[in-house]
Specification:
two-stranded antiparallel ribbon; two-stranded antiparallel sheet; 6 strands; elongated; 5 helices; alpha+beta; 31% strand; single chain
Length: 272
Amino acid sequence: MIDEPKEDPAKKMRKLIGSNSPLTRLPKKNEQDDVKNDASPPKKVLTSTNRPTQISNPTPASKSTVKPASPAGASPKPANKSSIFGPRFWTIASVISLTINGITLLALLITAFVLLRNGLGVSALLNMGNSLLGGLYTNFEKMDRASIQTNVVVDTTIPVQFDLQLNQQTNVVLSQDVTITNALVTVNTGGLNISRANTTIVLPQGTTLPVVLNLVVPVDTTVPVTLNVPVNIPLNQTELHEPFTGLQDVVRPFYCMINSNAVNLNGEPICR
């Protein structure tokens, strides 16, 4: 029999360690442990022949980004609403801002074109502003100093109901003949003298008699009233005074910017 050559035990050990290294089966803690393992010096293992053998660190497994699977039956996490709302909000705000800026720029260009076309300079614009603001301020001041003057016509009927007390002497005229019986009459003539004799007297129609009236007369009637009442209401004494002065205060700063020597209706300076 031919004896097979005996394989070196060190080579057998290296083959076993190189093919099925127990280090490759150990769980990795984190990337720092992998870096430490890579930087650690090679370990020495004694073989059966007491010869040191270097065992190189196994090649670290490639890093994977596989996420752990969610447990069965678990609902998926909702998307972050703020991450969706934020870009949309800024997009809409940017569009609105650009639109407003575009409109403003277009208005300025149109205004400049109109001014250049009509040949209006800075002095002409200042005169226009002075006339416009001065007219507004002056008219607001006049409105505050104005008054409402008119005639109010009153045409109505007023009910009248009261008791009239009469106690006075007056003369009455008989509208017909009046007979007075058992009247005491005294007659003194040249041949006949009668003193307080009972007789019957007839007072003819149209006789005027002095009498004293003492009675209460109830009055219940209606009286027509037609009046022309003149009215004069100063506006600075009404609730319109505050709005008119407020309008003057609004116009005053711009008016003073153009004309610092502006005066009111009394000739007093308004820019102080």
